[in-house]
Design a protein that fits this description.
By secondary structure, the chain is α+β, with helices and mostly antiparallel strands. The chain contains 18 helices and 18 strands.
């Protein structure tokens, strides 16, 4: 079946809409009020408060297409199935249907709607452990659908368990669906748990039926949820019988543009990885910059990831002979490909082109400095071996890939301590992963009183900034809340004066002193606009949103936890105001 990306998106939304699901818009790639992750990594991420029991304006059944970014497997990009940006097709039951409905729907969509051969489908279920029993119900439901018993695999928590998002909270077993590529088994124990490439994951159904408690035990949830996710690119690859995601229609025009600019072919194994990496990284960069809360390259948080992606693309592009302006030309093709589905990219086209060109120029200067550093290093060496830690410094500080350092060293008669480099690189990755794990404290799943108060304070501060600065371009660009403090990014081109900061504090504290109720109403986006509500208006026409009103002090679209009255907030104090990135300021504040 030659299904296009447009047709697959439509089939998905039609299938679940007919089964009582409310379509909802993709949330921003930049999570709101969530310190746990840098980017939205799955469709469920923006829905955590509703999975925890908050009522959703769309009801108990939802479906969407969510923009996602994951960079944990960045070194794998260039193979047949890994991408840093992808679209997650999702559907949810918020305390409504469960396994008995979802598993037959999954089988029906895969075999009837997508036309996949049921004999080539394999599925996994949770094998059980001391915490929770073996998920025999899921296996039995799959068998009833027609999945062969030998194609049902029981795996442990590493493979078939989701959550919780933090230390405690909703979690449960999942069942994953895989399509057999036809490759021979790599060994006698080859299964969907294998990374040999025989089995490619297509879909994942998570059954949130337990709560992990503070003591590490598990208890049944009052509200059982279903949370599913299908990666659009991998599904297209399987449905179309293509060898890689880069052969699907979402990538073909991007790859062709790189081939045209470089004069190299993706079918040539010498250039294949480079072309694929550039196609993936530029596509991801376009979505990050062009997002409703889009960020620009910097040395912190999302801006750092964006910088890393762009510079990695440029490094690979050097081998292909790509020149100034070529990367932004590729970006234009990405915008054109997604123009109808994600119109925010069209609106941000000029910004995307500008930022990519600027980052390329900055990187060229950095590389020049790196070459000078390399030359200096060579003059001080007492042996003909460049130490691994020096090679890693060139990589980490100046963006030199190891291959580039080896090449430069070879030209000058030196060798590189590759093992030493790998040791430093491994240490760096472990620190990065440890840092990422630290982010999973608090977040959207944290609906404690302190978090709710700080969240409410961001609304009051947002409005106060608009009034004090008297600038229509002042808008929220990001928010990060922990139980200790709030961090708020907003668009503005200069530092705030001490007088302006004092005026913002005074306005927020006046609203707190007024002790007005925090009122939540559900309405359409158009109704929210008409009432002057602040917020992102990327939602589809007719889609309902939650609007929080605090007297005359704030009216804002939001989905997070809030205090019941402003008087609960105590005293608001700004701790720091600084630059976040070009044209974006950052305020850190506390409640005392």
């Amino acid at each position: 079946m030659k299904l296009t990306s447009e047709q697959l998106r439509k089939k998905w939304m039609d299938f679940f809409t007919k089964r009582g699901h409310t379509p909802i818009s993709s949330a921003s790639l930049i999570p709101e009020n969530d310190p746990t992750v840098l980017f939205t990594t799955a469709g469920m991420h923006p829905l955590v408060p509703y999975l925890l029991g908050q009522p959703h304006p769309g009801g108990k059944r939802l479906c969407d297409m969510q923009k996602c970014v994951r960079t944990g497997d960045i070194e794998e990009v260039g193979d047949n199935s890994h991408c840093t940006f992808f679209e997650m097709l999702g559907n949810w039951s918020l305390g409504d249907y469960f396994k008995a409905e979802m598993i037959p729907w999954s089988f029906e969509f895969l075999t009837k709607e997508l036309g996949l051969d049921p004999d080539r489908l394999s599925v996994t279920a949770f094998e059980g452990d001391g915490d929770c029993p073996r998920d025999t119900e899921t296996a039995e439901l799959w068998q009833k659908c027609g999945i062969k018993k030998e194609n049902i695999y029981f795996l442990g928590k590493k493979h078939n368990w989701w959550g919780p998002a933090g230390q405690t909270g909703p979690c449960g077993p999942d069942t994953e669906m895989f399509y057999d590529t036809g490759k021979p088994k790599c060994c006698d124990t080859c299964s969907p748990a294998c990374d040999c490439g025989k089995y490619v994951e297509v879909w994942n159904d998570v059954f949130m039926q337990f709560n992990k408690n503070a003591d590490g035990s598990f208890s049944p949830l009052k509200q059982k949820n279903v949370d599913t996710g299908m990666g659009l690119e991998r599904a297209l690859m399987n449905v179309q019988g293509l060898p890689s995601v880069f052969d699907t229609d979402v990538f073909v025009p991007i790859v062709k543009k790189i081939e045209e600019l470089s004069g190299k072919s993706v079918s040539d194994t010498e250039w294949q990885k480079s072309i694929r990496v550039i196609a993936d990284h530029i596509r991801t960069s376009v979505f990050i910059i062009g997002d409703e809360r889009g960020v620009t390259p910097s040395n912190v948080d999302q801006g750092y990831i964006l910088r890393r992606l762009l510079r990695r693309a440029i490094r690979f592009g050097k081998g292909l002979g790509l020149k100034d302006g070529d990367y932004s030309s590729v970006a234009q093709v990405v915008v054109d490909k997604y123009a109808e589905v994600y119109p925010e990219l069209v609106a941000a086209r000029d910004k995307i082109v500008h930022e990519i060109n600027e980052e390329q120029a900055r990187f060229e200067r950095t590389l020049e400095n790196g070459i000078k550093e390399f030359e200096k290093l060579c003059t001080y060496l007492q042996t003909d071996i460049i130490p691994g830690k020096s090679a890693f410094r060139l990589y980490d500080t100046y963006g030199f890939p190891l291959e580039m350092t080896i090449e430069l060293a070879k030209e000058r008669g030196f060798k590189v301590d590759i093992d030493g480099f790998e040791v430093k690189f491994k240490e760096h990755r472990e620190k990065s992963h440890a840092g990422a794990e630290q982010r999973f404290k608090g977040g959207l799943a944290d609906t404690g009183e302190l978090t709710a108060r700080l969240h409410t304070a961001t609304h009051l501060m947002h409005q106060a900034l608009k009034e004090v600065l008297n600038d229509p371009t002042v808008n929220q660009r990001g928010s990060n809340i922990t139980p200790e403090r709030l961090r708020f990014d907003f668009s503005f081109g200069r530092p705030l004066t001490p007088e302006e900061l004092k005026a913002v504090e005074d306005k927020v504290n006046a609203a707190i002193q007024a002790d007005v109720p925090v009122v939540c109403e559900e309405m359409t986006v158009d109704e929210a606009k008409a009432q002057g509500a602040v917020g992102l208006f990327a939602s589809k026409y007719g889609e309902k949103v939650k609007v929080y009103t605090m007297g005359k002090y704030s009216k804002e679209i939001c989905g997070g936890p809030h205090a019941s009255h402003t008087g609960e907030l105590g005293h608001f104090r700004i701790v720091k105001e600084q630059s976040s990135s070009a044209g974006v300021r950052r305020i850190k504040a506390v409640l005392e």
